[in-house]
Amino acid sequence: MNLLISPCSDPYWNLAAEEILLKNQQENYLFLYMNKPCVVVGKHQNTLKEINSKYIYSSNTLVARRLSGGGAVYHDEGNLNFSYIQSVGPGDSLSYKSLTQSILSFLMILIPEIELSERNDLMLRGNKISGSAMHLFKNRVLAHGTLLINCNLYNLSAALKGHPDRFVDRSIESRRAPVMNLSEQNQELTPDSLISLFSEYLRKSDPNIIYSQLPIELNDPILELVNSKYSTPTWIYGYSPKYSYSNEVQIGLQMIPYRLEIEKGIISSVLLEENDELNDDIKLSFNRLVGISHNIYSLTKSLNYVGNTPFERRIFKTLI
């Protein structure tokens, strides 16, 4: 097993590195990394449904989509991510517990109260400290997880506080749970100190661990995958399953409900309930939404377009 510690805190780079190590290599890796503030959604989730778009935009928090399934998670510099990437053969166990045994054993020695739930979440005093996900590719498996050490839990809560009631779809929904940091149990713990302690544990317990650096020939493929996939709106938002978004906007003294249909991240149609306040200009304003990307950045750009009427700006404010 090769132990790699990422030199980068860019979530798009680290997610691309995971995929390249999984699909382009045959060696086994334990890949550790920390990201700058971001929300990472599961492969089959509806991104907008999982995030607080207004907070994401105002706080410059990044949004990413990973290769594996599961729910949305928040990362920052107080969160350590671990990825076990290895080849498996017939008869090999594909259980998350067996694949990630080394870090589970280490953490349970460090803090004996830690337990592994049936959903492969690490729990401490009834609170979640780690989520997990897996992805299979041919004879290769990726088993990865998060570890809350001294994460900003206020930002975590704010970033993941969306409006799921406005969406109708068949996406995988996150299961919310109370969370806590490891530093609440041991105030001396930081991501860097935990990496040092874990590295020392591996040195003593596993003679087959090789302390490695990322092969230099992988830098270009990783960067290419960042630019062609992981940092693109097409992957982050457009990969979301088809969905409907419903809200309402005030016209005069009345609230007018509307529903958008979104495919591949693009608004494809608008449905309005008939109302005495509706006229051709209002209907035209709504129809102008068709073809716009349904994400905070495109909508904010449209909101600030100088050619918009005050009413059209009011509509855009209900979309984000």
List keywords for this structure.
single chain; 320 residues; alpha+beta; BirA Bifunctional Protein, domain 2; Enolase-like, domain 1; six-stranded mixed β-sheet; four-stranded antiparallel β-sheet; 12 helices; elongated
Characterize the structure shown.
This protein is α+β, with helices and mostly antiparallel strands and 320 residues long. The longest helix has 15 residues. It is elongated and about 75 Å long. It has twelve helices and 16 strands. Helix 1 packs across helix 8 and helix 11 runs antiparallel to helix 12. It has a six-stranded mixed beta sheet, with helices on one face. Strands 12-14-15-16 form a four-stranded antiparallel beta sheet, with helices on one face. A three-stranded mixed beta sheet has the order 4-3-5, with helices on both faces. The model has no long low-confidence stretch (mean pLDDT 92). It has two domains: 231 residues, Bira Bifunctional Protein, Domain 2 (BirA Bifunctional Protein, domain 2), CATH 3.30.930.10; 75 residues, CO dehydrogenase flavoprotein, C-terminal domain (Enolase-like, domain 1). 31% of the residues lie in helices and 26% in strands. The chain starts with a strand and ends with a helix.
